[in-house]
Amino acid sequence: MTRAQRIRGLLALAVVALSLYVAVTVPVHLGLDLRGGTQIVLETRPTAADDAGGDTVDRTVEVLRGRVDALGVAEPTIVRSGSDRIVVELPGVQDPAEAAEVLGRTARLSFHHVLGTATDTTAGPLPDRSRPHVLRDESGQPLRLDAAALTGKDVEEAAARFDPQSGAGWHVTVDFQDTGRDRWAGLTGEAACRPAGDPARRVAIVLDDRIISSPQVDPSVRCGAGISGGSTQINGAFDDGEARELALLVNGGALPVPVETVEQRTVGPTLGAQAITASAWAAAVGSTLTALFVIVVYRLLGALAAVALACYGLISYAALAALGATLTLPGLAGFVLAIGMAVDANVLVFERAREEYAAHHRPTPRSALAAGFRNALSAIADSNITTLIAAGLLFLLASGPVRGFGVTLGIGVLASMVSALVITRVLADLAVARPGLRRRPRLTGIAHTGAVRDRLARRNPQLMRHPRRWLAASAAALVLAGAGIALRGLDFGIEFTGGRQVEYATATPVDPDRARAALADAGFPHAVVQTSGENRLTVRTGQLTNAQANAVGAAVGDLTSRADKLRDETIGPSLGRELRRGALIALAVALCAQLVYLAARFRLLLGTAAVAALAHDVVILVGVFAWLGKPVDGVFLAALLTVIGYSVNDSVVVFDRLRELTRHAGKERGTLFRNSADRALRQTLPRTVNTGTGAALILTALAGFGGDSLTDFALALLIGLAVGTYSSMFTATPLAVVLHERRR
C-alpha cells in the first residue's frame, strides 16, 4: 500500500467515524410538516393612523422573517392573517417563550446627544423622536435627550463580542453606513465640546424608549472632530445571550409598528403519519433499486460504490444535524434523490476505467481504475464546482427556504465528492489489488465496455450531423411550454398567493389523517390540516368562495358531533414579495457566476451553451406543469431548485470530454469541431444513461409509493431529469456546434 493510499484510508475512516458519532449523538430537527412546532400569533398595535394598513403589516412580516433566520430556525412559516395579525410557526424551537419575546420586540434603536440632567422625574416613552424628551439612564437618573441624531437605519452591522482583557466583557459593536459615519462623527464631535464630567458630554443609546448605554465621550476626542471610523460599541453588563439578542435585533431592523403576542401554542404536523410512512417506504425502495442497478452494471465495483453511497448518506445526514438544519418532507426526498445523483461521480470514474481497459489491450484492473480516477477528475471537479457556486450564492443572497436549500445542496455536493473520490477509491484500490481478480477481471465490472457502449460502437450514430434539427426541436418544445404558461397560466399555491385559514373547536378529538381524506373527497386535496391541543383543528387552503368555505365546514363537521368555527381569516403568502425577489436575484447571479466559471474553464461559447440549456430546462418544466394544471407551490419550488442545481452537470461532463478531444485533435476547424462534439456525445452517453437510470429509479419509487404529498415533487424532478438529459445532448451540444461554425 502506497503512502497516498494510507492517507486516503485514514481520511475515509476518520470522516465516517466522525459522521457516525454526530449522527448518533446529535438529533436532527424535523420540520412543521413532519413533527409540528410552536405557533405564535402576533397582533400589530399601530400608534397612529399612518402606521395602519396592509403595507405596514407586510413590512412587519419581512422584518420578522429576518429575525427568525437570525435565530437559526430553518423552514419557518410566517404569514399574514386577517388585517392585523401575523402567524409565525417555528419547528424545533428549544425555548418558545424566548422566541416569542425576541419576535415581539419593536427594536427601535436611536442615538441622542444628552442635553443635561432633568430636574423633574416625568421620564417616559418618546412620543416623537424629532423633539427633546426625558428618559432615565441605566442608574435611574432622568436625562434630557436631544432629537435622534442616528437611528437603526444608519447601522450597517452589529455583532456580539467578548473582550476579557479590557474588562468590557460581552458588548455589541456597531458599524455605521456611509452617511451614518458622518452623523456619528458630528454627534460625538458636538458632545466633545463639553468639559469632562458634564452630563452633556454623554451620548445616549436608546432601544425601545429605554436608555441601554450613555457613555461619556473620551477626553482624547477633539471638539468638532468627533470619533472617526464609523463604529462604536454598546456596553451594558450583558451576558452572552443578551449581547447576541441585541445584535440580532439591531441587524434585523425595527418593526414598523409595535406587535403583541396574543396567542402561543403547540401545533401538530401538516402531514399525516400515513403520508410520512409511505414516503419512508418509497425512499427505502428507491435507494435499494438504485444500489441494485449499480451492482448489476458494475459488479464488484458497483457493490463497493453502493457502500460508499451509504457512507455518503451518513456524512450528509451528520452534516445537516451538526448545522442544526431542519428536514422537511421535500427536503428528505431531495436528500434521497441526492443519493441517486451522487452515483454520478462513481459512474464517471468507472466508465473512464472501462475506456482505459478497452483502449490499452487488457491492462490490469488496478491500472485501469487508477486511470479512470485520473481522467474523470476534471469532469467531477467542474460539475461540482458549478453546483457549489449556485449553492453558495443561494445561501448568501436568498433567505427562507431558498437559503436553506443552498445549504442542503452544498452539503450534498461536498459529501458526494468525499464519497466518490476518497471512500470509493479506498475500497476499490483494496479490491482490485487482490490477486484473484487478475485471473477473473470481469468480476470487477470495468473489464468490458458495457451494453450501451457496445451498441453505440456497432451503430456508430452521427448525432451531430444536423445540429439545427435538434435546435429546432428544442425551440418547438420551448414554444409549446410558453404556450402552456400563456394560455393556461400557472396555478400558484397558497405559499405564493395566500388563501384562507379556518379554525374549528370540535366536540371530540379529530384524527388529522381522516380530516385530510375528507377534505380531499370534498374537492380540496391540497388543504393543509393541523391540530392544536385536543379539540382544535385548523384548515388552511387557497382562496375560497363562500360556498367552498361552507363545503370545508361540512367536511369537518361530518367527522365529529359538533364543530364550532372559532376563526375565519384570509392569510397572506408564506413566500412573501421580498423573499421571492431575493430568490430571483440569487438565481440570476448564480447563473451569471456559473457562466463566468464555465467560460474560464472551457470557453465563453461552451459556457453560454450550458447556461442556455439550463434556462431551456426551467422553462419546459414550468410549461409542463402549466399544461397539466399542477400547483406551483413550495414543493414545486424545491423541485425546480433541484433541477437548476443539477441540470448543468450533464452539459459540463459532455463539454469536458469535448475539450479533451479538441485538445488532442489540435487546431479546431469547421467539421473537426463537429466531429469532436459527435464523439464526445457518444463517449459520454453510457455515463448519462447509467446516472439518469439511477436517479429515475428513486424518483419513480417516490412517485409510485410516496403518496400524494410527494407525487408532484417526484413528477417535477422526473420531468426535469428527462429534459435535462435531453438538453445536455441535443440542446447544449448542437448550440455549441452552431455558434462555433457561425464564428468562423
Question: What labels would you give this structure?
Answer:
744 residues, single chain, 5-stranded antiparallel sheet, 20 strands, 4-stranded antiparallel sheet, alpha+beta, 20 helices
Describe, in plain words, how this protein is organized in 3D.
By secondary structure, this protein is an alpha+beta fold. It is 59% helix and 16% strand. It has a five-stranded antiparallel sheet with strand order 6-7-5-10-11. A four-stranded antiparallel sheet has the order 3-4-2-13, with helices on one face. The radius of gyration is 31 Å and the shape is globular. The relative contact order is 0.10.
Average per-residue pLDDT, rounded, comes to: 82
CA radius of gyration is 31 Å
Stretches where pLDDT is under 50 for at least 5 consecutive residues are 120-124
Distance between the termini: 52 Å
Helix content: 55-70%
**Strand segment tally:** 20
Estimated share of beta-strand residues: 15-25%
Q: Given the structure, what is the number of helices?
A: 20
The structural class is alpha+beta
Strand order, main sheet: write it out: 6-7-5-10-11
Q: Give the overall shape.
A: globular
> What summary fits the major beta sheet?
5 strands, antiparallel
